[in-house]
């Protein structure tokens, strides 16, 4: 705590630590992380709260650093009422960063699994950081880019695996179809 005994200082220090943990490959210094955290606003969210919904085109101009608690990220399967959990996101992770970068509709839904504490960074605050503290902002953007690249690589790996499974299933179906065809042909003779 600082001289005033403010819990905001403890939360700020925790957020700085979490941000440097979320962006380890960006080379962000503690001082740069402090500038980014100071541009964030702290938010507490109760468990079971929908933070944002897949496809939502409104209110996409922010991202958040998870400071405490867990968030579930999920996407729709195309079948009514069916969602696939993409990941469980914990402290030190960023959410919503695609929206803060491109302003496009949310690509997934995020729900608080537990009570959570977030550091929220708006696009406006990011733009101000870019103008006022370009080194800190560029390291943050680099960290966001690296995180998105890692997720894209993981998605590519999963897609490759899914493709291999699909091909194997198709080969099995073709074999079963061939056996069934021979059985039908034999029974007709």
- What fraction, in percent, of the residue positions are helical? 40-55%
Order of helices and strands: HHEEEEEEHEEHH
Number of strands: 8
Overall CATH architecture: Sandwich
The whole-number mean of residue pLDDT values reads 86
Assembly category: single chain
The low-confidence parts are 1-7
Arrangement of strands in the largest sheet = 1-8-3-6
**Total of domains:** 1
Provide the CATH superfamily: Jelly Rolls
* Number of alpha- plus pi-helical segments: 5
CATH class: Mainly Beta
InterPro entries: cNMP-bd_dom (IPR000595), cNMP-bd_dom_sf (IPR018490), Env_Response_Regulators (IPR050397), RmlC-like_jellyroll (IPR014710)
Protein name: Cyclic nucleotide-binding domain-containing protein
Pfam families: cNMP_binding
Domain Cyclic nucleotide-binding: 36-130
């Amino acid at each position: 705590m600082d001289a005033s005994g403010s819990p905001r200082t403890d939360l700020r220090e925790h957020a700085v630590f979490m941000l440097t943990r979320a962006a380890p490959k960006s080379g962000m210094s503690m001082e740069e992380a402090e500038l980014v955290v100071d541009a964030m606003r702290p938010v507490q969210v109760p468990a079971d709260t929908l933070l944002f919904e897949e496809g939502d085109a409104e209110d996409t101009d922010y991202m958040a650093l998870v400071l405490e608690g867990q968030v579930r990220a999920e996407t729709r399967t195309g079948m009514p009422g069916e969602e696939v959990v993409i990941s469980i996101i914990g402290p030190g992770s960023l959410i919503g960063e695609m929206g803060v970068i491109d302003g496009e509709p949310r690509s997934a839904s995020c729900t608080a699994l537990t009570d959570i504490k977030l550091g929220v960074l708006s696009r406006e605050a990011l733009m101000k950081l870019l103008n006022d503290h370009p080194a800190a902002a560029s390291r943050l953007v680099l960290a966001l880019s690296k995180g998105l690249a890692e997720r894209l690589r993981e998605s590519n790996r999963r897609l490759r695996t899914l493709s291999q499974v699909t091909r194997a299933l198709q080969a099995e179906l073709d074999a079963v179809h061939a056996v069934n065809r021979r059985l039908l042909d034999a029974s007709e003779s």
